[in-house]
Design a protein that fits this description.
single chain; 435 residues; Jelly Rolls; 6-stranded antiparallel sheet; 4 helices
Length: 435
């Protein structure tokens, strides 16, 4: 059996391009060779799983690929013969040959249950992967590198290409690696020898993709018929308006800014050891909501994601409603002896129109009667773009509490906007609570 020929026949079969001669040849191969049948069954099972995933809400479906026509008679005839051999058909993509991509480095990673969890070596091909936390840096044969930030869903498709279904990616390609591309639910992004960032999210119904060019140029292809080039320093939000793609220079009157993780050392741990608040419920009287997935609910405060990260519809920080300083309450789910809180402020993705200036913290056992814990102030987040935001610790005498309420008594505003501008308010990235 010639594996390359079998690959080509299977590819034509599932791409619905298999002619009569090819059908006869494929049936003969499968009928005569048990290894061919075994390999076909493995491939069909894998891509049947991908087909099921593709029909699930939120799974990647590139707008750059035309919708597939109904199966033709040649496919049905071949599939009928294959069914007699004990398998079922689904989507099939040609198996890449040779090295595709390797895991170069990880930092503070956690993988979703059921996902492969590669810490080093070759990356699984054509298999959806889900990173719930941390960073993974991939290397490709051309020298291109991609740094992925969790939470992130992605899939390696072929040499010099991957699909980013949700999450953030920073791409670096050296000279000679031009042409590397990333497919997203909003379209394709082709590297022209550069560094650029992507953030793939949703407004709840349609994809929202942010991109920023750090070096060189990037070609944005919202559809096979459309193409736009972005140069260094340019950024855009790719959204859908009545089914048509639109490239916006600002998202909700705010500039699009992303972090270049390629230029940063990946963290080795999350720094969460002993944090009682991690993953705990958080309640708030209100939070900021805007169009295009700009929603900032209070449960972001205990999700372990820092530094104004995230994507549209899944940002990592909490913002109070417009004009409000805001407050929130963390439920530790049981009474704990606590003596320290640690707070990371926000500046709303570098827009610098939100954040906590002064606060008061209270404890409670029943969420009705509260007693003071500590009060203090947080400096404005002023780090250079892409650097880690600091945490600030506040200690108090050990006390037993189940609920910790933080009331923002004063918040930051934009330094140059007029006093009547409504877009300002309290906000915070993360709260950590320690014994």
């Amino acid at each position: 059996m010639k594996e390359d020929r079998l690959d080509q026949l299977l590819h034509d079969l599932f791409e619905e391009r298999l002619g009569e001669d090819g059908r006869v040849e494929l049936n003969a191969l499968l009928a005569a060779d048990p290894q061919a049948r075994a390999r076909y069954r493995r491939s069909a099972a894998l891509h049947a799983a991908l087909a099921r995933k593709a029909s699930a809400p939120g799974f990647f479906e590139s707008t750059a690929v035309a919708s597939r026509p109904a199966p033709r008679r040649g496919w049905i005839a071949a599939a009928a013969v294959v069914a007699l051999l004990g398998t079922a058909a689904a989507l099939f993509a040609t198996r890449p040959r040779g090295p595709v991509a390797t895991v170069l480095q990880t930092g503070g990673v956690a993988w979703a249950d059921g996902s492969a969890a590669p810490e080093s070596g070759r990356l699984p091909v054509a298999v959806p992967l889900e990173l719930t936390r941390g960073f993974v840096r991939l290397g490709f044969p051309s020298g291109a590198e991609v740094t992925l930030e969790g939470p992130c869903r992605f899939r390696l498709d072929q040499k010099e290409a991957l699909s980013l279904l949700h999450g953030r990616a920073s791409v670096h390609t050296p000279d000679g690696a031009e042409g590397f591309h990333i497919d997203t639910p909003g379209g394709r992004f082709v590297d022209l020898g550069t560094e650029f960032g992507l953030a793939v999210g949703s407004d709840g119904t349609t994809p929202v993709v942010l991109t920023e060019v750090f070096k060189g140029e990037v070609e944005v292809q919202p559809s096979p018929q459309e193409s736009t080039r972005l140069k260094v320093g340019e950024s855009r939000a790719l959204v859908r308006d009545e089914g048509r793609p639109r490239l916006l220079a600002a998202l909700d009157e705010s500039p699009v800014t992303l972090v270049n993780h390629h230029a940063r050392e990946l963290p080795r741990s999350s720094g969460e050891d002993g944090n009682l608040a991690l993953g705990k419920p958080v309640f708030s009287p209100g939070y900021c909501t805007r169009p295009h997935g700009s929603v900032f609910p209070p449960d972001n405060l205990t999700d372990g994601r820092l530094d104004d990260s995230g994507v549209p519809g899944d940002w990592s920080f909490w913002l109070a409603p417009d004009g409000d300083s805001g407050e929130f309450t963390v439920d530790l789910l049981r009474a704990e002896k606590i003596g320290r809180i640690s707070l990371q402020n926000t500046n709303n993705r570098g827009i610098d129109d939100r954040g906590t200036s002064e606060f008061e913290a209270f404890g409670s056992l029943d969420n009705k009667s509260f007693f003071p814990l500590v009060s203090g102030s947080l400096p404005r987040v002023a780090e250079e773009h892409g650097q880690a935001f600091p945490f600030h610790d506040f200690r108090f005498p050990p006390v037993e509490a189940r609920y910790v309420k933080v009331v923002v008594t004063r918040h930051y505003r934009h330094l140059t906007r007029p006093a009547g501008d409504p877009h300002h308010g309290g906000g915070m990235n993360e709260i950590r609570i320690f014994p």
